Amino acid sequence: MSTPRKRPRQQRSKETVAAILEAAAQLFGRHGYTATTTNRVAERAGVSIGSLYQYFPNKDALLTALAEEHLAEAVQVLDQALDACARERPDLPGLVSGLVGAVAELHTGRPRLHRLLFDQAPRVPELVARLRAIERRAAAGLAAELRRLGRGGDDPELAALLAVQGVEAQIHGAVVDPPPGRSAAACLAAVAALWTRALDVPAR
Questions:
Q1: Architecture of 61-199 per CATH?
Q2: Which of 11, 20, 27, 59 has the greatest count of CB atoms below 10 A from its CB?
Q3: Are 5 and 47 in contact (CB under 8 A)?
Q4: How would CATH label the architecture of 11-57?
Q5: What is the value of pTM for the model shown?
Q6: What is d(CA 143, CA 148) in angstroms, rounded to the nearest whole number?
């Protein structure tokens, strides 16, 4: 079983779960998946192993819960970025830079942890479905802006979806783990330039 066992309802239980997840995030980010154990997580969180097991039956359940938190944060950050675009009506480079910056914000705070979530978090069907829904939601907002700008080629909706998925994958790769001799900032600029060129096709 790789999903959390139960959801906290009382405030004290919520605080316990928050402490466990913060401890897990720190240990996974610092030591990786293999070296992190539920005993170490419980010790770092200041709770008994029995208390941890009330909510999380194993390490995979901890990773799943952290992935759920990450997706919830993604909705908030991307919605804020798209709302800003709707208000400010940027040009195409500004639009793409806003998208790239929002995705980078999600993944560069704890890069090792996000790499672990991307590479090793269980592919629970509900999480995959939520990820796809977030991608479609972000793509719909981006497509609306592309249509406003008269860009995106024959199918702005498809172009927007490919851009959202491409930016996410590229930030997980080159930006979180830059190639030798390149900084994260240089990789971010390259991703933004790449997708600005790709989307700069007149709509038909």
A1: Orthogonal Bundle (1.10)
A2: 20
A3: no
A4: Orthogonal Bundle (1.10)
A5: 0.81
A6: 9
